[in-house]
Specification:
By secondary structure, the protein is of the alpha+beta class. It is built from nine helices and nine strands. The strands form two sheets. Strands 3, 4, 5, 6, 7 and 9 form a six-stranded mixed beta sheet that branches.
Length: about 280
Amino acid sequence: MTANLRTALRLASDSLPVLPLRKGKGPFGNCPACAKNACGGRPNMKTPGTCACPHPCHAWAAATTDPHTLNSPQWAAAWRTAAAVAYHPGGAGVTVVDLDNAAAITWARATLPATRTVPTTRGEHWIYQGVMSSVNAVRPGVDIKSLMSYARWLGPGTGTTAALPVVVRALAVKQPSTPRRAPQALTVPIRGQSGACPHRTPTYLDRGIAMAVQRITDAGSAVHATVYRTFLAVLSTHGRCACLTEAHTARLFTAAQAKGESVRHCTDAWTNARTALGL
């Protein structure tokens, strides 16, 4: 058993989803049945597909806490040549702010709440409790690794893990080029059609929006899909009359952004939902 496999098994026993990394920090290639992503990708990846592979095999999606999978023959060759161990931050319920140089560290110390830090080859990983979308280059020398991403395991670090702050979530939100109010500054139609409203009272709509906001807020994973399905549900019920206002849509967008979605992602999901319903 290699040192990296021993480390992986120890981390997996602590509920940290792990995977082997090649030299150069890249993940190993797909398994033979899914070579060159022939299966189209696992359902929980950005590229939807119908992969039925019995063993995880796609980059961050390969991260697992199952010792039998880690010790399986399918993974033996990977562990024999692995240069390091990586983990899936989102699967562990954390977000890594990857600071790639001294200037980025200086910025973080002046801007972000103190939390657990791990030294890296060129900088530091700042680890927060909570998950969000992963985004590279949110500012010079700063990447965010959480959902659908992996980070190299470099040790437990020092300090106490703080809750994921709003300032980190805000880094993933693309700012508009001109000053505008967010999240009301939308680029898609938000009103329904001009048909007669079939709802008996405004309370019906308010209750529906509140339930939709709660559904987004409670999403523990698959945030993109949850936001789209929620928008689709709201529009299917309220999208063909004039009762759905900008204020209602702003509440939905605010909830989605609090889960790490950008304004662009919200806008795309809203537009796709309207198109799917023929609105």
